[in-house]
């Protein structure tokens, strides 16, 4: 395992700039997901790490080694693609044996009939490595089957096994679950996360599915327009998005983006409701338009309208079993509210629904999409910093109470 560091990675195809100065550090043993919509540059970035694509500018380091210009075969990285890319005429064992034969055997030792006779000991060792890897992936009973005799999940595990058997520095995965059905994707997500924990190897995973990023990653990097908008733990990206585009992309159903306005004192009004918290002061900032973000789970249903409710007509019920999402028509926009199954039974299509927002969960974004902080958030940070400073200062001046060198001072103080 080794740390992978990207510095100012840029990539252009003609006049089209695909990557715009990416800086990224992937720690050894980490599961990092690159997530974003199609065309954001995530697969291109993965191919640059793998050595399948050359960057226009910037550096790629694996450990302390600069690998700019180093061939993909010499980087000791394993790539797993969206298509399984298994040889259809070979068994699972033979497919897994291919990368080991290419890496560890000389040309004449790879010859079909003569090779196994010339290098019996080597072939026995390679087969042992294949068997050990197959046991980890629960493929040991499928080694004699060909890809056409396997299910989608089994083929995906065979493709993983072919990559694993080389014991690479890191696994690079480009949307490996896209071809599976919904139920199998959920199952394979759990298997991949368990596999990562058992191997302890670095995983770099590319997907457009934010559910995969949220459920499997140690950290996730949200990419759009060739840039990383936010890099953090999945829960922080969900709860504390740094940009409106991140907030809208991560979460299903997506966050409710409601138009609002902020005055010079930091008070925010949204659809006639005044938020209880004020924005942190920005010197010289005049009143301006803002966007208030509230996720569907951050509303409570009310039996009647009030000064603090948003009311609309129910136009669609999205039943997901444990939860029901109510889609409300507010006239100028739609609002999505999560409700419990029992609670949602009281509402039929066309009914008037009243939703009360949780003020403490509201997120506010400027016109350019950047996150605006509330006063209590910044005050909390300042308070933490101030308390830490006081604690450090107090610790510096505290003297031991029972040391021999302090006895004369204590006696003098007692005498006075």
**What CATH architecture of the largest domain do you see?**
3-Layer(aba) Sandwich
- What count of structural domains? 3
The separation of the N and C termini measures 66 Å
Mean pLDDT rating: 87
Structural commentary:
The protein has helices at residues 42-50, 92-104, 114-118, 120-136, 152-164, 182-199, 210-216, 234-239, 244-249, 341-344, 375-397, 407-415; strands spanning 4-13, 16-26, 31-35, 57-62, 65-66, 77-80, 170-174, 202-207, 219-224, 227-232, 256-262, 268-270, 273-274, 288-294, 299-302, 310-319, 323-329, 334-340, 352-357, 363-365, 371-372. The chain has 416 residues and is α+β, with helices and mostly antiparallel strands. It folds into 3 domains: 4-239, P-loop containing nucleotide triphosphate hydrolases (Rossmann fold, 3-Layer(aba) Sandwich), CATH 3.40.50.300; 254-372, RNA polymerase II/Efflux pump adaptor protein, barrel-sandwich hybrid domain (OB fold (Dihydrolipoamide Acetyltransferase, E2P), Beta Barrel); 375-415, no CATH class. The strands form 4 sheets. It has a 6-stranded mixed β-sheet, sandwiched between helices. The chain starts with a strand and ends with a helix. The model is unreliable at 382-416 (pLDDT under 50).
Task: Tell me briefly what this model is.
Helices cover 31% and strands 29% of the residues. With 416 residues, it is α+β, with helices and mostly antiparallel strands.
């Amino acid at each position: 395992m080794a740390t992978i560091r990207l510095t100012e990675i840029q990539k252009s195809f003609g006049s089209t700039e695909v990557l715009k100065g990416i800086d990224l550090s992937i720690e050894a043993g980490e599961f990092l997901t690159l997530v974003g919509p199609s065309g954001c540059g995530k697969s291109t970035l993965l191919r640059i790490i793998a050595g399948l694509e050359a960057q226009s500018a910037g550096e790629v380091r694996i450990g302390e080694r600069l690998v700019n210009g180093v061939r993909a075969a010499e980087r000791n990285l394993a790539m797993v693609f969206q298509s399984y890319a298994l040889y259809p005429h070979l068994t699972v064992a033979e497919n897994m044996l291919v990368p080991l034969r290419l890496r560890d055997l000389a040309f004449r030792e790879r010859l079909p009939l003569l090779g196994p006779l010339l290098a019996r000991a080597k072939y026995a060792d390679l087969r042992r490595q294949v068997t050990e890897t197959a046991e980890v992936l629960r493929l040991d009973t499928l080694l004699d089957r060909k890809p056409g005799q396997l299910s989608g999940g089994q083929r995906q595990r065979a493709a993983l096994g072919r990559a694993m058997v080389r014991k690479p520095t890191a696994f690079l995965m480009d949307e490996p679950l896209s071809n599976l059905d919904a139920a199998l994707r959920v199952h394979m997500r759990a298997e991949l996360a368990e596999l990562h924990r058992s191997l302890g190897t670095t995983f770099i995973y590319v997907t457009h599915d934010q559910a995969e990023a949220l459920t499997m990653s140690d950290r996730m990097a949200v990419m759009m327009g060739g840039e990383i908008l936010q890099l953090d733990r999945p829960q922080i990206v969900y709860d504390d998005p740094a940009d409106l585009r991140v907030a809208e992309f991560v979460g299903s159903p997506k966050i409710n983006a409601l138009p609002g306005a902020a005055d010079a004192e930091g008070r925010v009004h949204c659809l006639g409701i005044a938020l209880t918290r004020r924005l942190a002061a920005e010197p010289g900032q005049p009143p301006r338009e803002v966007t208030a973000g509230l996720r569907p789970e951050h509303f409570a249903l009310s039996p009647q309208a009030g000064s603090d409710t948003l009311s609309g007509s129910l136009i669609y019920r999205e039943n997901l079993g444990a939860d029901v999402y109510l889609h409300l028509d507010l006239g100028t926009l739609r609002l999505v509210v999560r409700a419990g199954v029992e609670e949602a039974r009281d509402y039929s299509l066309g009914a008037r629904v009243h939703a009360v927002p949780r003020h403490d969960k509201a997120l506010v974004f400027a016109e350019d999409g950047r996150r605006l902080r509330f006063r209590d958030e910044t005050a909390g940070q300042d308070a933490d910093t101030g308390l830490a400073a006081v604690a450090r200062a107090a610790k510096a001046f505290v003297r031991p109470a029972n040391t021999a060198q302090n006895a004369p001072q204590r006696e003098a103080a007692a005498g006075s």
